[in-house]
Design goal:
single chain; mainly alpha; Glycerol uptake facilitator protein; 0% strand; globular
Amino acid sequence: MKKYLSEFIGTAVLVLFGCGTAVVTGGLTAGTGIGTFGVLTIAMAFGLSIVAMAYVIGNISGCHINPAVSLAMLINKKMEVKDFILYVVAQVLGAIAGIGLLYAIGSNSNLGVESLGANGFGAASAVGLNMGGAILVEIILTFVFIYTILGVTSDEKKGSVAGIVIGLTLAFVHIIGIPLTGTSVNPARSLAPAIFLGGEALKQVWVFIVAPFIGSAIAAFTYKFLNKED
């Protein structure tokens, strides 16, 4: 239970601070956003959340806090199916808890609860990226993120810096991804705000569940192929 509780807490922190920063800064929202600085601030919030949690719960659960990460570990036989299922449940519940806290904060302030850091395409994309483009972007960004995780966690010599590397990688994929889709690379992080917002966010969320899983699977199989012993 310690593993699952750790994943719940870690995901809640990631979503609260990452999506919360998106709500506070406004990102690229016309009229209220702060442009490039807003994007960088949101990216660093997500990245630093990973760094913080990695050094707190990493030795307990591995600090996946993302179903796409857990899928890659399952494919690479670093976790059992039962653990995978329970990790995903804990991560989704943690994300919902994080958004729930953000919703409570927004509802009791002038921030509002119009976006909650939800992902989107078309009119919901800052640059009007269409559905096909959103799927491609999320596959690519998730591939890069997961591939980096697999590389840095597979070498014990890199253990002391793994959290920092993973956090910075998440930050840099957010820098390009925020204007395009809001950056998911994490199905739990995308599902939670969509549940609270409903409407178009909920209709579009399947893209941000399916595409990260595809990107994760590609990264996992690519890593296995390139790193197998001849």
